[in-house]
Amino acid sequence: MTGPARENHREDVAGRANVEDTPELLAYYRELGRLDAGALWTVANKIEPWEPQSSSVPVLWRYEDLRNHVLRSVDLVSPEKAGRRVIYLNNPGRRGFAAAVGWLYSGLQVMHPGEVASAHAHSASALRFIMEGTGAYTIVDGHKMTLAANDFVLTPNGTWHEHGVASGGTPCIWQDGLDIPLVNALEANFYAVHPDLRQRVGYPVDDMSKTWGNPGLRPATGEWSKGYSPLLKYEWAPTYEALLRYGQSTDGSPFDGVLMNYVNPVTGGPVMQTIGASMQMLQPDEHTRAHRHTGSFVYQVAKGRGFSVIDGKRFDWKERDIFCVPSWAWHEHGNASSSEDACLFAFHDLPVMQSLGLYREEAFGDNSGQQPRAV
Questions:
Q1: What is the CATH number of domain 60-217+228-374?
Q2: pLDDT tens digits, residue range 185-227?
Q3: Pairing relation of β-strands 373-374 and 313-318?
Q4: Order of strands across the sheet with 322-325?
């Protein structure tokens, strides 16, 4: 054992591995290696860190940089040949997993009017957040949902789903968010193509919104026992109205401003078992305090402009930009406008952290704030 591995192996304090290499031990390690085994103390400091050590790094993906490349894919590949015409976001620290951050995947998908992606199902859970265009729709297990900018739709694990843009619409781009890296890490991913390639729409259009999307009300005959939300589509207009109403009665969280979680209307819990989603509003000139928590986040700017300081680096963002906050990274957000609010959509893996009892959170020191450096 040489180089960084050896230094890591020896540098820890009392109660952790601190064994000095000797010729006899090195020979012993080689013998264990030939048996596909190893001595725990040689890796203990790496696999049991004092606190989370994310391999992900903070990244800001500027929409103006990506948009032309996303649109260019239309001329280069067809949805039939590509399966899905998507440009995925590749975190420099997670390139081997095609992950945007942690165990979360994100990609930008484009479809033109009249195009339809074939119906399929997979073990990964997914959501779509509409970035631009008109006429987009998704069909989930026979339920068709029409979609507009800043709406998002669920395609939970195991459901048949397909996406398209109506012939009378305009080119549409949306962000796909999935837990593909997590499901692959668990070695539990399946994928299937619908035998007919298309689904039959078996219900009135937008029936799930009309049934389950009425605030404070639940259908008297409505029954739902699945692990994901029956609402399936979450619309921007009522979400933004709810943020404004909530903001009139609270100063919000000192760390996240006026923050509201999208929920399963049956359970009050997250929209899916492995992925949660939220929308937060920063008031004009608001600058939140710094904190950190377990769990990885992918943010998309739904409205306004501002900045985030993540582990001491400042990232300036505007509408439709996407950025990530790795697990256990210090972060704070600011609204750059003195007259308009800013809204951030996020999807994250907190349902996993919370269900496994792994969620932890802490504030940044005396909250004098991080000392940001521009990137």
A1: 2.60.120.10
A2: 999 999 999 999 999 999 999 999 999 999 989 999 878 999 9
A3: parallel
A4: 60-61, 322-325, 297-303, 342-348, 276-282, 258-261
